[in-house]
Amino acid sequence: MISNEKVLELLKGVIDPEIGLDIISLGLVYNVEVTEDLINITMTLTTPGCPMHSSITEWVKNILWQAAPDKNAIVNLVWEPRWTPDLMSDEAKKALGI
Questions:
Q1: Distance CA 32, CA 60 (A)
Q2: Based on the number of CB atoms within 10 Å of its own CB, is 65 exposed (0-12), middle (13-18) or buried (19 or more)?
Q3: Residue 18 — φ and ψ, nearest 5°?
Q4: How far apart are CA 34 and CA 39, in angstroms?
Q5: Please, what are the domains in the chain?
Q6: DSSP 8-state secondary structure symbol assigned to residue 82
Q7: Largest alpha-carbon pair distance within the chain?
Q8: Contact, 41 vs 29, CB < 8 A?
Q9: Do 63 and 14 touch, CB atoms closer than 8 A?
Q10: pTM as predicted
């Protein structure tokens, strides 16, 4: 069975194309829940009007399907709590000069 930690590691491969950093480092993933037949991701984007929202959520589903094709991946895109740069990792802040 794929672990939450493995899911988080895989999601580091999903890059926000407008910022150029992965969604984990940006603090966009709020929760990961893995069950016997499901991977449930709760995440946000940097802005509600992000033009890449469909692409990013599809990339998340695709990377998870490649690693665990026997599980259904669901991406819950939420806007609360609102994303802020405070959620970014220290490395991401440094990379962006924050």
A1: 12
A2: middle
A3: -80, -25
A4: 5
A5: 4-91 (3.30.300.130)
A6: P
A7: 41
A8: yes
A9: yes
A10: 0.92
Task: Provide the token pair at 44.
Answer: 């946000």
Q: Are strands 29-34 and 38-43 parallel, antiparallel or unpaired?
A: antiparallel
- Using CB atoms within 10 Å of the CB of residue 56, give its burial: 0 to 12 exposed, 13 to 18 middle, 19+ buried: buried
Residue in the block written with tokens 């966009």: 28
- Which of these, 43, 21, 23, lies nearest to 32 by C-alpha position? 43
Other beta carbons within 10 angstroms of residue 7's beta carbon come to 24
Instruction: Give CA–CA dist 23/27, Å, rounded.
Output: 6
Q: What's the pLDDT tens digit per position in 36-91?
A: 999 999 999 998 887 888 899 999 999 999 999 999 999 999 999 999 999 999 99
Distance separating alpha carbons of residues 63 and 52, to the nearest angstrom = 16
